[in-house]
Predict the structure.
Amino acid sequence: MSELSVERTDAPCFELPGELAGELGGEVRDYIALLKPRVMSLVVFTGLVGMVLAPGSLHPVLGFTAILCMAIGAGASASINMWYDRDIDAVMTRTRDRPLPRGRIEPGAALGLGVVLAVGSITLMGLAVNLVAAALLALTIAFYVFVYTMWLKRRTPQNIVIGGAAGALPPMIGWAAVTGDVTIASLALFAIIFMWTPPHFWALSLYRSDDYQRAGVPMMPVVAGPRETKKLMLLYSLLLVPLTLAPYWLGVVGAAYAGAALLLGLGLVALALRVWRAAGDRAAKQMFAYSILYLFLLFALMMLDKTRMVVA
């Protein structure tokens, strides 16, 4: 009797049964998955770099608010994208375990979440930061949802080329959050990501071409074949390398960044050449992985070099 009393006293009154707690935890994880946190992290990072590179300053609270709005906006786009693409996600190996194809979240809930987050992030950005940043955030969400997801993705192999504009806008949003305008320098940051996107995604589509073909998505390897895709990957990589030097020529960053960017770019071109010559999927997988690291390092180096310039 006394042991039972002690056990009751020690047990917290708010403790949930194990099965219910597991269900709630799984539901939370599913809703987080709807927001594509990996993509969100890259959006937040490039947006932060745009803020650091921009001339002027922003109050830390407003800076955090701008970053938060970009993260929420990215999550909103992802949620609406998953709602619209749930049919093709169900037949692709890479995406079939997402919450909507598995029936763990209702389509209406995903759409509602996306719309609420989109409206909320744009409104907060406009009220707390400035209208230019809010307009660019609205453009980013609208372009990803309506232009890329609903129009281009299922209709043309240029889906990634044109649709990549949505993923290239975050540094411009970050820049505008500080300055309230759009400049040639912020457009250069946009151009780097815009030119990086096709070879990055074409590398993925080379070794996932069966997935895209089964889903009826006209990615370049499915429509034009691997050889043409590899040629375009090499061409875009060659064009990207000098473009990454634009922030240096515009005086945004210093020579240390330019030298490192050139070396990193030569590595990208070398991998593109390897993909061009290789017959299997290994080179494409390596280039896909390197391209993610490449973009991260480019923007990290810009931020570090800018910080060094300010301190000096």
